[in-house]
């Protein structure tokens, strides 16, 4: 099974969250799941099609998802539309102000694709706390564990 982390990580706060998600998804107790990580600007449609589950990470820029993550979906949306229904996903998002618009956008995209939310979204404002990073770790581990055979 393959778990694809598609992320846009332009800041130290986003980086800390990404590393925690990756650590959770890569936990040694989770067996049979290959974790692949790709920046949103370079992920290919083929990589998205080949994944069995997804972790999505983005900052909330001006109340919306990053242009990089939007680009990843724009280039692959129609190819993914009927081919990836029912696949699990998780979302972690960092914003210094409101994150509602970014959450609404990603909920709309993933709902349109027919993906299944595997865990609560992790939404962080400001510097991630220890609890925030633990929530990111749990998000990664939860989505990866759902892919174990």
From TrEMBL:
UniProt-recorded Gene Ontology molecular function terms: oxidoreductase activity
Domain annotation NADPH-dependent FMN reductase-like: ranges: 39-124
Origin superkingdom: Bacteria
InterPro entries: Flavoprotein-like_sf, FMN_Rdtase-like_dom
Protein name, per record: Flavodoxin
């Amino acid at each position: 099974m393959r778990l694809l982390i598609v992320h846009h990580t332009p800041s130290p706060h986003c980086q800390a969250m990404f590393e925690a998600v990756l650590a959770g998804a890569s936990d040694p107790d989770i067996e049979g799941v290959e974790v692949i990580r790709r920046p949103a600007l370079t992920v290919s449609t083929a990589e998205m099609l080949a994944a069995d589950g997804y972790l999505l990470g983005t900052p909330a820029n001006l109340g919306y998802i990053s242009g990089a993550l939007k680009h990843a979906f724009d280039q692959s949306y129609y190819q993914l539309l009927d081919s990836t229904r029912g696949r699990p996903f998780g979302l972690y998002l960092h914003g210094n102000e409101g994150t509602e618009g970014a959450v609404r956008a990603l909920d709309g995209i993933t709902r349109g694709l027919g993906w299944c939310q595997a865990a609560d979204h992790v939404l962080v404002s400001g510097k991630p706390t220890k609890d925030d990073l633990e929530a990111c770790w749990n998000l990664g581990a939860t989505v990866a564990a759902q892919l174990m055979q």
